[in-house]
Amino acid sequence: MTGEPSMRTACVIALTFLVLAASVRAGPVVTLSVSPAVISQGGAVVVTVTGDLPDGTLQVRFAGRTWPLYRDSNRWRTYLGTDPNTAAGSRAIVVEIVDHDSIQILARRIITVRRVAFPRRTLIFDPETLALLTPEKVAEEQAKVAAGLRVLEPAQLWSASFRMPVAGTITSPYGVISIYQGASHGWHHGIDIAAPEGEIVRAANGGIVRLAEPLPLSGDTVILDHGMGILTFYMHMSALDVTAGERVHTGDIVGRVGSTGLATGPHLHWGVRVNGVYVDPLLWAH
Ligand SMILES: [Zn+2]
């Protein structure tokens, strides 16, 4: 009987230690939701994180890179895009917090990315048009786009679903491999909608005009920033009806259909970019 009190003390200490160990191991209570769980290459998933988050920078790891998360009232949200280069199969989405040198994993989900057999197309440009395709012109275009997209809006500016910017026949879908001059020139970063020269092109959703100027290869171009890393691109137009910095709403006129830049005829190239990845626009608008 004499040993009982010390035994009890030992038990209390052990229990306290267990509770402490359990709370350390459990870490912060974080809820991660990912939707949908299965996508095809060119699709996107929305990631939402709620809970008591520790100090540090919240980020998502997916497909070999990190993605920003955006504050959205009492939760964090982001969109992860995939393209023909995203490896198909089971892919992990990992939410982690970075605080100085330490990275703590808060939650993890597995999604399935399905492979898509993207078709090929052969394009024939007249020599004058093809002469545009020089390393200097490519670099000039990339620099202009990068300058326009230096600052992006973190808050969501779009509402409801996106609308098609112009009515017409889709002459080239997303992801098609372009062949010209006997070589592959990469996959199509958007869709081509054939429409008469001068046809009105409308904003697919609300946003801020980040670029509205002629580009060497993409011709008269408008880029809209819809917030949270979502951008839409309108290219090869014959006229621009907006200026950089302007706020637009769904359906506002941004330009006119044309065939400026590296184009074989009047059409609108429409692209949707999700945090740096060009996705299939038809999954955003119908
Ligand atoms: Zn195109």
UniProtKB/TrEMBL annotation:
Keyword field contains Signal: yes
Protein name as it appears in the record: M23 family metallopeptidase
PANTHER family linked: L-ALA--D-GLU ENDOPEPTIDASE, PEPTIDASE-RELATED
Pfam families: Peptidase_M23
Keywords on record: Signal
Record-annotated M23ase beta-sheet core domain positions: 188-281
GO molecular function terms noted in the UniProt entry: metalloendopeptidase activity
InterPro entries according to UniProt: Cell_wall_metabolism_enzyme (IPR050570), Dup_hybrid_motif (IPR011055), M23ase_b-sheet_dom (IPR016047)
Keyword Chaperone among UniProt keywords: no
